[in-house]
From TrEMBL, chain A:
Signal peptide stretch: none
Organism of this sequence: Candidatus Raskinella chloraquaticus
Domain ABC transmembrane type-1, chain residue ranges per copy: 100-300
GO terms (BP aspect): transmembrane transport
Domain of life assignment: Bacteria
InterPro entries named in the record: BP-dependent_transpt_permease, MetI-like, MetI-like_sf, OppC_N
Protein name: ABC transporter permease
Subcellular location: Cell membrane
UniProtKB/TrEMBL annotation, chain B:
Key words of the record: Cell membrane, Membrane, Transmembrane, Transmembrane helix, Transport
Name of this chain's protein: ABC transporter permease
CDD domains for this protein: TM_PBP2 (cd06261)
Family, as annotated: Belongs to the binding-protein-dependent transport system permease family.
Compartment(s) of residence: Cell membrane
Principal location: membrane
Statement: the UniProt record of this protein carries the keyword Transmembrane: yes
GO cellular component, one term: plasma membrane
InterPro entries: BPD_transp_1_N (IPR045621), MetI-like (IPR000515), MetI-like_sf (IPR035906)
Membrane topology term: Multi-pass membrane protein
UniProtKB/TrEMBL annotation, chain C:
Domain of life of the organism encoding this protein: Bacteria
Residue intervals of the ABC transporter domain: 9-258
Main location: membrane
Protein name per UniProt: Methionine ABC transporter ATP-binding protein
Pfam families linked to this entry: ABC_tran, oligo_HPY
Family: Belongs to the ABC transporter superfamily.
GO molecular function: ATP binding; ATP hydrolysis activity
GO CC annotation terms, alphabetical: plasma membrane
Cited SUPFAM superfamilies: P-loop containing nucleoside triphosphate hydrolases (SSF52540)
Keywords tagged on the record: ATP-binding, Cell membrane, Membrane, Nucleotide-binding, Transport
InterPro entries: AAA+_ATPase, ABC_Ni/Peptide_Import, ABC_transporter-like_ATP-bd, ABC_transporter-like_CS, Oligopep_ABC_C, P-loop_NTPase
Topology versus the membrane: Peripheral membrane protein
PROSITE patterns hit by this protein: ABC_TRANSPORTER_1 (PS00211), ABC_TRANSPORTER_2 (PS50893)
């Protein structure tokens, strides 16, 4: 008689119960909405110069007469400015669209940079092992304990101290992207390292060495497909985190300046006027930001479940 | 166990030396210590004279040990902007941040654990789903936006809470506290919620998933089969086993708490260290930044040490060298 | 055999409602255990033996539920108990020993804490020192060496066999009338299995405790039990005195099961094997659940479900019980 583990029967129940179809359906419907929302955001950011009613960077077209107008549907609103204007008379809708470009741009570039650095260091750590591995992984641990915002603050202060003549507008993108990449590479490195360690001892790597091929090149082709899923999940979640971090830094006044406002800058500007009742300057960028992050987070959750149920 | 703790202390000291090097590099090479002593319009001869006087021409190793020696005596130089000792500036703002962080983290842990245990035990109840949905939104909303929304709602619209500052504080000589006055206490409410919300959400989700996991384990089933009371099973047996991951994650979240404290202090114009640090970054006040870096490093080491000790307190498997009797 | 019936199970049916319909994991199972008797329950994984035990002590995990039948402990209905009444039953009147001693004990408490906790939960009248005395004497009873020192040791400081002794002490802490032992030796080294079984047998004999011993190991059954019930696809296919079931099985499944045990005397060097495997719960065949694997299947077996009927000194559920078949295994 074969001895099967006695809980085998029960885990069958468990999996039946856990894969509740109603739940899955609701969840996937939410995911569809999130995906559509994210796509809309991406398109809006990409096409901002074409679809925005005005160009917020064009200071010549601004008129202080139009400053701090409420949204179009309220009594004092101007139909020209759907979501109202800020203190300088900039159209909020247009500024949000241009701000989205910045937010999403920072997200994409920093995620790509962190992923490249992280994957490369992960493969090296896993393949070379020994002291190199220990150093890289210790560094990764330290990085994971330090939030991007702190790194960005120190970096910003340092950069502006060394090059005092640079304008905030010019360094903001570089500083924030660098800080985010510096903070996030560790997560990729850990995943890739684990996968590399597994592949390293496989027969084909040894075989490749025997026939004179560079094993790291061969391995790379095998490691990559294995890590693609987890990397995609990490990237999605990091994308949301990067957008949040950029908005936070801009809100704190060390990110994008009011002359080139991101969503966080707009919220910061609006925050000064909240007490005088001009809520729209803060509220609309705030909603835009929150929805974007929520949608990407939902997508990330779904990806995680769909691609790799073990990664929790 | 003693050996382990000693090794941890050693590692902590190493981290402090590394952090000290970074702070020193920041202080010495990024900033210009001469600026602390003279105005930016001082002549080059004056600057050169002062450089020699305060030892900036000495070997770097000597300067570094001097910096660490002074830091150990809580001397971090003068702030460029305030023209005051950095230590004094920090000391003035330390109580505000500590009180805020203490209240926020306490609320976050207590509420997070309670909600986590509840949602873990009643996984399909209506209330659990409400908590979980709200927590997903809470995790997606940036901290500063939550703070702004709270201010808008409770300070601007309802006018029941102050929107900024610490309220009235009582000076105890070495410490200023907002706990002793009504205005001080009510000023704490909104910032503490803002700062604690993220950690509460995180704790709740963590405790929930750990509870779900542990309630399936054999020793819980065995505790049931022994006829123990629900309260004993849920809190004595299940919850106690979730403590290790909760301690780990709470310790790891320390950096996030600091970052969020900066944000919260900015939103509520809270006169704390985060606010001071942000101002220092904006005005490139390097001595303050260097001191803040050292402080973060020290707190980081300290908290990791406390976490290690808590592991020993909670988990007997670490306390005893395993000696198996046959 | 003592006439006093401790546990009486009648027509017990355990169901799991799922989206694809209701799955019946335990189907119309009836048996009883007398005072001091040891009943073995044997069957393959998924035959429903553990679920039967879980149903008796009220530990079925939702959505599993007792759909039909009655469970009586000394004449008192205990199925359908809930809350405080169920809690008072567990440990106090029915004890349970689980399979894996490594995971049955909470790693964060000493074995003494866990014993004292169990004792004082069920005997609130005992003082702290009296509860401690009892805990100590239990540890001595189950054969923990240097019990006094070990009382405040943690589970990880014990070996697997010693931990299972502690688990048995915990199950017996409140002097229950019935102990359900669910594969108590499966997770242990072969060398300690026999010790644990002997210990369980001795302790229960001393206390007059009845035992329901769930296992898939016919060897353990043969050594330990007074009677044995054979489960297949949630149904009892045969039940009777242990010697008869082993040496003169009536049901074709039991016969096959006995044929699959290697004989030590080596007279027969070929193990017989039952073709196929037990059906999944979602696809239990009509009629006799065993018919697709049975060599003697007839149209009746396919159409109608056999009930337990007297066969030899026990009973079996088969349409083909005849004198020729009875005794085929001897």
């Amino acid at each position: 008689m074969t001895v099967v583990h006695p809980t085998a029967g029960r885990s069958l129940w468990r999996s039946l119960v856990d894969s509740d179809m109603l739940h899955a359906f609701l969840r996937s419907r939410l995911t569809v909405v999130a995906a559509l929302l994210t796509l809309t955001y991406l398109l809006a950011a990409l096409l901002a110069p074409l679809i925005a009613p005005t160009n917020p960077y064009d200071t010549a077209s601004l008129s202080l007469l139009d400053s701090s107008l409420p949204p179009a549907w309220s009594a004092q609103g101007d139909p020209k400015y759907l979501l109202g204007t800020d203190d300088q008379g900039r159209d909020i809708l247009s500024t949000i669209l241009y701000g989205l470009r910045i937010s999403i741009g920072v997200g994409v570039v920093s995620v790509a940079l962190a992923a490249m650095v992280g994957i490369a260091l992960g493969v090296v750590a896993g393949y070379v092992g020994g002291r190199v591995d220990a150093v890289i992984m210790r560094l990764a641990e330290v990085q994971l304990a330090f939030p991007a915002i702190l790194i960005a603050l120190f970096l910003d202060g340092t950069v502006r101290s060394i090059w005092p003549l640079l304008k905030q507008e010019d360094i903001a993108f570089t500083v924030i992207v660098a800080a985010l990449a510096l903070d996030n590479w560790a997560k990729y490195a850990r995943t890739v390292r684990g996968s590399t360690l597994v592949e390293k001892n496989r027969d084909y790597v040894q075989a490749a060495r025997v026939i004179g091929l560079r094993p790291i090149a061969i391995m790379w082709r095998h490691v990559l497909p294995n890590v693609l899923g987890p990397v995609l999940v990490i990237a999605t979640i990091n994308f949301a985190l990067a957008i949040l971090a950029e908005a936070t830094l801009s809100f704190l006044g060390v990110g994008f300046p009011p002359t080139k406002p991101s969503l966080g800058t707009l919220i910061r500007i609006g925050n000064n006027f909240l007490f005088s009742g001009e809520w729209w300057i803060t509220l609309f960028p705030g909603i835009t930001l929150a929805l974007l992050v929520l949608a990407v987070n939902i997508l990330g959750d779904w990806l995680r479940d769909a691609l790799n149920p073990r990664l929790r | 166990m003693i050996a382990f703790l000693l090794r941890r202390i050693g590692q902590g000291l190493l981290v402090m030396v590394a952090v000290g090097m970074m702070a020193f590099a920041l202080f010495r090479f990024v900033g210009d210590p001469v600026n602390q002593l003279v105005g930016p319009d001082a002549s080059e001869e004056d600057r050169e004279r002062i450089r020699v006087e305060i030892g900036l021409k000495d070997p770097v190793a000597l300067q570094f040990s001097r910096y660490i020696w002074r830091a150990a005596h809580l001397d971090f130089g003068f702030s460029y902007q305030f023209k005051q000792p950095v230590t004094k500036l920090i000391a003035e703002r330390l109580p505000a941040t500590m009180e805020l962080a203490f209240v926020a983290v306490s609320i976050a842990l207590v509420l997070g654990v309670l909600l986590g245990v509840y949602t873990g035990l009643h996984r399909d109840s209506f209330l659990s789903n409400v908590f979980l949905t709200v927590s997903l939104i809470g995790i997606s909303l940036p901290t500063f936006l939550i703070g702004i929304l709270l201010i808008f709602l409770f300070a601007v619209q309802l006018k029941v809470m102050p929107s900024f500052g610490r309220g009235q504080v009582v000076d105890l000589g070495f410490w200023t506290t907002g706990f002793l006055t009504a205005s001080g206490r009510s000023a704490l409410v909104l910032p503490a919620i803002t700062l604690g919300l993220f950690q509460m959400t995180l704790t709740m989700r963590l405790v929930r998933s750990e509870m779900l996991e542990i309630m399936r384990l054999d020793f819980i089933k065995f505790a049931r089969a022994r006829g123990l009371k629900n309260r004993a099973i849920h809190f004595g047996h299940a919850f106690k086993n979730t403590l290790i991951p909760v301690i780990t994650v709470t310790g790891l979240q320390f950096g996030t708490t600091i970052a969020f404290a900066i944000i919260t202090e900015t939103v509520f114009q809270w006169p704390g260290m985060g606010n001071l640090f942000l101002r220092a970054v904006q005005t490139v006040d390097i001595p303050i930044m260097a001191c803040y870096l050292m402080m973060i490093g020290f707190l980081f080491v300290l908290i990791n040490f406390i976490v290690d000790i808590l592991y020993f307190v909670v988990d007997p498997r670490l306390r005893h060298v395993t000696k198996v009797a046959l | 055999m003592s006439p006093e019936i401790v546990l009486d199970v009648r027509g017990l049916t355990v169901e799991f409602p799922t989206r694809n319909g209701i799955l019946t994991a335990v189907d119309n199972v009836s048996f009883s255990i007398a005072k001091g008797e040891i009943l073995g329950v044997v069957g393959e994984s998924g035959a429903g033996k553990s679920l039967t035990g879980a149903a008796i002590i009220g530990l079925l995990e939702p959505p599993g539920r007792v759909a039909k039948g009655e469970i009586r402990l000394k004449g008192e209905r205990i199925d359908g108990l809930a809350g405080e009444a169920l809690r008072r039953l567990r440990g106090r009147r029915v004890g349970m020993v689980f399979q894996d001693p490594l995971t049955s004990l909470n790693p964060l408490y000493t074995v003494g804490d866990q014993l004292i906790e169990t004792i004082s939960t069920h005997r609130p009248d005992l003082s702290a020192s009296a509860a401690r005395e009892r805990a100590l004497s239990l540890l001595i009873d189950v054969g923990i060496p240097a019990a006094k020192d070990r009382l405040f040791a943690y589970p990880h400081q014990f070996s697997g066999g010693m931990r299972q002794r502690v688990v048995i002490a915990l199950a017996l802490a409140a002097e229950p009338e019935l102990v359900i032992a669910d594969e108590p030796t499966t997770a242990l080294d072969v060398s300690v299995q026999a010790q644990i079984i002997a210990l369980l047998k001795r302790l229960c004999a001393e206390r007059g405790t009845s035992v329901m011993l769930i296992t898939h190991d016919m060897g353990v059954i043969a050594e330990t039990c007074d009677r044995v019930a054979v489960l297949y696809a949630g149904r009892i296919v045969e039940i009777g005195p242990v010697a008869d079931v082993i040496h003169r099985p009536c049901h074709p499944y039991t016969i096959g099961l006995m044929g699959a045990i290697p004989a030590l005397d080596g007279e027969e060097d070929r193990l017989t094997q039952i073709p196929g495997s037990m059906p999944r719960l979602s696809a239990i065949p009509q009629g006799c659940a065993f018919h697709p694997r049975c060599a003697r299947t007839s149209q009746t077996c396919i159409d109608e479900r056999p009930l337990l009927t007297a066969a030899g000194s026990g009973s079996a559920a088969c349409w083909h019980i005849d004198p020729a078949l009875t005794g085929a295994g001897s």
